[in-house]
Amino acid sequence: MSDQNSETMPIDPNVDPYGCLGMVRNSDGSITRLQEPLVPVDTSNDLSHLVFTKDISINSSKNTWARIILPRELLHSTTNTPKLPLVIYFHGGGFIVATVDTPVFQGLYASIASEIPAVVVSIEYRQAPEHRLPAAYDDCMEALHWIKTKPDELLSNHADFSKCFLMGTSAGGNVVYHVGLRAAESWDNLKPLEIKGLILNQPFFGGIERTQSEVRLVNDNMLPPIISDIMWDLGLPEGADRDHEYSNPMVGIESNPNLFDQVKLLGWKMLVTGCDGDPLIDRQVDLVRVLKELGVQVEGSFTQGAYHGSEVVDPLKAKEFSLLVKELISHV
């Protein structure tokens, strides 16, 4: 992915949705990737000097890997510095675009690591449609087991495995939801990794019936419903529609009212964030309402005047989000 320059005109997603995603749709329904979508990267508040990063392979046969990000000052400390909370992060991209290495995510990693402070591990998972869901969930569960069985020395030396949080943005928030449910059921097999909370940042959910916010923001320039539809069409299992439980969490909850019993038993806290400029906000608000009705320890943080993905584009929004997460972590 290249930095957007002043001569690059972004493609209108409502006019050329596949082009906006850096791909073309072939007559047989397959896609051809042309490039990563261009997203402006604000370098005016570069925090890269505050953190140290290291990339580690998880499963070479799947080409899955992780980037470890931690405050640089930890490496130069001469005192017995306490270990930091461990934040396992899942990136966005609608399951079909973006990677751990996509430039727009780097500022958020650095903000989380330096503001909380925390050790961040960003997980690379396989993309759809070449690898449809649940491939991403499987890869991220495998990553949790990799972290607990083969920790890099940066993790064993600086990360507090007893204070772990799963965090994700957009599609990554969807991953947190589904992987979190899996992890709750197998929590004993993940020790010494102890998850304390799930953080869903503008989570990517869908459904066949349009919500009021999706209708209101039908021509949104960041994530209009037509783009979400394409992402779900390419990401869900073959033949599934947007009311599949991977897309629509209400379907899974309605079919299994006890779905969150283990999350409640473990005492995990959940945070769901969103904003009124995101077409997905109604789905996010509804999820918080239903989880509260089920007795889950969940808080919703919904703001005005922002847009989908603002935390990974705007450094000030990234800092605001990092401080919100810091507040949650400090009370666990």
TrEMBL record:
InterPro entries, per database record: AB_hydrolase_3, AB_hydrolase_fold, Carboxylest/Gibb_receptor
UniProt superkingdom: Eukaryota
Molecular function per GO: hydrolase activity
Pfam families linked: Abhydrolase_3
Family the entry assigns: Belongs to the 'GDXG' lipolytic enzyme family.
Domain named Alpha/beta hydrolase fold-3: residues: 87-309
Name of the molecule in the record: CXE carboxylesterase
